[in-house]
Design goal:
Elements: E1 6-12, E2 24-27, E3 31-36, E4 47-50, H1 57-71, E5 75-79, E6 84-92, E7 100-102, E8 110-115, E9 135-140, E10 157-158, E11 162-168, E12 181-182
Parallel strand pairs: 3-4, 9-11
Antiparallel strand pairs: 1-6, 1-8, 2-3, 2-7, 5-6, 10-12
Length: about 180
C-alpha cells in the first residue's frame, strides 16, 4: 500500500536585529514559536527560539528549523542555507494542509502555509494468469475522511484480473465489464 502526498510550506527568515522579543509564528493554530533575540524563556505555552549567537538570516533560519524539529509537532523543518526553511508534514493527506500565521513586524519575514497534502492509496497485487489466479475485491468509498474533510473518488479504478465483488460510494458508476470499475 502506498500513501498520499505530504503538505509543504516555507518560512523566510530575517536577521536577528530585525526581530523583536516576543514576536511569534504559529503552525496549524496549535504550536506557537516565539523569537527570543537575547535568549530567555518564551511566554507559556509558546516554544522559545533562542537567537543568541544567531545574527544573520541564515543563522536565524537554522535556529528556527532546529526549534521546530525539536518540538516534534509532526512537521519537519530544513534550513536551506539561504535564510529560508522548507517545511514538510510528517503525515500525508489533506488534514496536513494547515495554516501558518505570524506576528513579525519585519516585512521580509514571510510564511507560506502547509499545502499540497492529499491522500491517495494504491495497492499492488501480483497474480499469475497462467495459473488462473484472481482476486475477489470489495471496496467501500466514503465521501468524507475521519476528520470530516471531503474526499474525492474521482479516478478510482480497479482493473486487471479481479472479480469485483462490490464497490459502493458516492459517484460510483457501475463497471462496464466484470473485471474493471471506474469512478
Amino acid at each position: 500500500m502506498k500513501g498520499g502526498d505530504y503538505a509543504t510550506g516555507s518560512i523566510t527568515c530575517v536577521a536577528r536585529a530585525s526581530l523583536i522579543a516576543g514576536e511569534t509564528f504559529t503552525i496549524g493554530g496549535a504550536y506557537t514559536f516565539e523569537f527570543r533575540p537575547a535568549g530567555g524563556a518564551a511566554t507559556p505555552p509558546n516554544i522559545a527560539i533562542d537567537l543568541t549567537g544567531s545574527a544573520t538570516a541564515i543563522a536565524v533560519a537554522s535556529a528556527t528549523a532546529t526549534a521546530i524539529n525539536n518540538a516534534a509537532i509532526g512537521t519537519s523543518a530544513k534550513a536551506n542555507g539561504d535564510g529560508t526553511i522548507s517545511l514538510e508534514s510528517q503525515a500525508d493527506g489533506a488534514a496536513s494542509n494547515i495554516t501558518i500565521t505570524e506576528t513579525v513586524a519585519a516585512p521580509a519575514f514571510l510564511v507560506s502555509g502547509m499545502s499540497g497534502g492529499a491522500t491517495t492509496t494504491q495497492w499492488g497485487f501480483v497474480f499469475n494468469p497462467a495459473r488462473q489466479q484472481c482476486a475477489a475485491i470489495r471496496v467501500v468509498l466514503y465521501d468524507v475522511d475521519f476528520l470530516g474533510n471531503p474526499i474525492t473518488t474521482e479516478g478510482f479504478r480497479i482493473s486487471g484480473m479481479a472479480l469485483v465483488v462490490g464497490v459502493e460510494g458516492p459517484g460510483y458508476k457501475r463497471p462496464a465489464t466484470k473485471n474493471s470499475a471506474t469512478v
